[in-house]
Amino acid sequence: DPCRRRRRTTTTTVPCAAAGKNQEKASSSSSQSESSSSPDSPPPPPTPTIATHDDLDVSEDVRHERLVMESERQHLHDADEATNVAWKQLLGVKDAPRTVVKWRLRLQLTKPITWFSLCTGVIAGCMASGNAFHADEGENLARALFVFVLAGPCMGGFTQTMNDWFDREVDAINEPDRPIPSGQIDGFEVMVQIGVLLVAGLLSAVALDAWNGLGHHDALFLALTGAAISTAYSVEPLRLKERNGWISGLALGISYIMLPWMCSMACFRGLDDVPLETLAVSFVFSVGALGISVVNDFKSSTGDRHLGLKSLPVMYGDKDAARISALVTDLPQLGVAAMLAQAGRRDAAIAIVCSVLLQVVLQQRLLLTTENPSDNDLKYMATSMPLFTGSLWVAASACGALF
Fold it and tell me: pTM here?
């Protein structure tokens, strides 16, 4: 019967379809169980835990300790910043922040950081005095210290204060936070400081001559010479720094090297007894100091160019001025080394040549191969000045032994 056959096929096909579906479900469930148990599958998420009261107390303690440590770290950082600010103000270096404390303003005007260069000249003079200077004698050390006070705080402070006053327009561009252009100290106070420091320096020179007991006024003569050079450097109508960077740089070199060197020797030997060879060496190193002063002019080249000052960076550009600085610094030292070698002090000559070679390396890295030499001026000064000073002292010691 066709109807019966159709009914049979219907009743037989439905269970087969249902069985197929059950098999698909079973296979999918088995594949899911296999995939979940496979090692490549990610682990199930961890079961969240509920923090207890003790855990919350511990986390609060840790957070409190972290806050305390962070506060202490910030306090130390602020203390370091305050210390740096104070030292910048006391030494008179660039970028020193403003202050309302009068004695700090007055000290900042004298730029105490420049006193160290004067001190190197004083020490060189003691070394070049030979047997006339005995470091183990207290009176000799006291005289040397007195010379440093005369050269540094008195005459050096006078020079720097006067230069700051007549450079106030330049500093208004280059260093507007300096005491004078910022208006922290007025012109009358500056003039009083200039006069007091000059008188103190001249009186100290007279006292030093009386202490020496040589019957000469060597220290007073050198102090007056330094005051005249400083005035010609800063004040119209001469104002050497406006005329020519070579002349003004040489004036600085003589003031920082030769004059304190000679003043120190005047205490122990007198100027009449200074050998010509020693005088020549001190002058040659003053020329070398001219090269170093060029690097110091990089920071003020913008204001110098604006106001027409003829510093070497303005005259030749920073890159050529850097080359000039290197040559003028190195060649005088090599010349002194050759002179000492000829005089029989080859050990001193070798030491100076080694110092110059190290300076050449620094010049290549920090001045000659950089796009902007002014970016490395402070780093170069901090690393090359000790080497230049070492050469100066080696030469002075050799002069004291030879002459």
Answer: 0.76
- In the chain, where the domains are located: 82-273, 275-403
Pick among 1.10.10, 1.20.120, 1.10.1660, 3.40.50: CATH of 275-403: 1.20.120
Please indicate whether the domains covering 82-273 and 275-403 agree at the CATH topology level.
no
- With tokens 């050469």, the residue in question is 391
384: nearest Cα among 330, 347, 320? 330
Rounded CA separation 342/229 (Å): 34
Query: For the range 331-340, what are the long-range contacts, defined as Cβ-Cβ under 8 Å and sequence gap of 24 or more?
Result: 332/284, 332/285, 332/287, 332/288, 332/291, 333/285, 333/288, 333/388, 333/391, 335/284, 336/281, 336/284, 336/285, 336/391, 336/395, 339/277, 339/280, 339/281, 340/395, 340/398, 340/402
**CB of 130 within 8 A of CB of 192?**
no
Q: Are 164 and 114 within 8 A, CB to CB?
A: no
Q: How far apart are the C-alpha atoms of 342 and 351, rounded to whole Å? A: 15
pLDDT in tens, the chain (403 residues): 544 444 444 444 444 444 444 444 444 444 444 444 444 455 565 555 555 555 545 566 666 667 767 766 665 555 455 455 555 555 555 555 666 688 888 999 999 988 999 999 999 999 999 877 887 788 889 999 999 999 999 999 999 999 999 999 888 888 888 899 989 999 999 999 999 999 999 999 999 999 988 788 999 999 999 999 999 999 988 899 888 999 999 999 999 999 999 999 998 888 888 899 999 999 999 999 999 999 988 888 888 888 888 899 999 999 999 999 999 999 999 999 999 999 999 999 999 999 999 999 999 999 999 888 888 988 999 999 999 999 999 999 999 998 7
CA distances from 203 to 153, 155, 195, 199, 208 (A): 13, 11, 12, 6, 9
Does domain 82-273 sit in CATH 1.20.58.100? no
